[in-house]
């Protein structure tokens, strides 16, 4: 919200927020289920269809925390609306009735590494620029690891 409020974007940039009720530690599992629910996936698909119908041809996706989990859960259902990165040069989004996915940026993604590794080639097939920002001191990610992996097989690593 702060990025949108303080961003002072030029008129050509139209920010949209796709959000659902998030939670705290007590409601973590409920929020996690909601982020991967079939209704959330359908809402994503509908939003992208409406953007295409409105004439949008380029899209940048910025996720934060559990938004990365939501993006991952929805990706297979929405990947067909994007022009493949290996499309012939000069192929325009307008010709194909699709959009170009210009970038995917994940801030402190609450997404297990194996799931991202499995998803990465599919994202890369429609988006050449994928960026992840994280901080080992992010307590929300630490709690996500505790809830997702109570046995402790996933370990946070510290840089020297």
From TrEMBL:
Tell me the leader sequence span.
none
Q: Which Pfam families match?
A: DUF900
InterPro entries, per database record: DUF900_hydrolase (IPR010297)
Its protein name is Alpha/beta hydrolase
């Amino acid at each position: 919200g702060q990025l949108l409020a303080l961003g002072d974007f030029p008129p050509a940039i139209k920010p949209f927020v796709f959000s659902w009720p998030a939670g705290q530690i007590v409601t973590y599992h409920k929020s996690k289920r909601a982020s991967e629910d079939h209704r959330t996936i359908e809402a994503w698909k509908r939003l992208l269809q409406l953007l295409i119908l409105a004439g949008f041809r380029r899209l940048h996706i910025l996720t934060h925390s559990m938004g990365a989990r939501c993006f991952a859960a929805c990706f297979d259902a929405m990947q067909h609306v994007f022009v493949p990165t290996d499309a012939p040069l000069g192929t325009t989004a307008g010709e194909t009735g699709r959009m170009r996915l210009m970038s995917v940026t994940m801030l402190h993604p609450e997404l297990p590494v194996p799931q991202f590794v499995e998803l990465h080639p599919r994202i890369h097939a429609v988006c050449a620029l994928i960026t992840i920002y994280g901080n080992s001191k992010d307590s929300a990610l630490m709690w996500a690891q505790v809830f997702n992996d109570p046995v402790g097989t996933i370990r946070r690593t510290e840089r020297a």
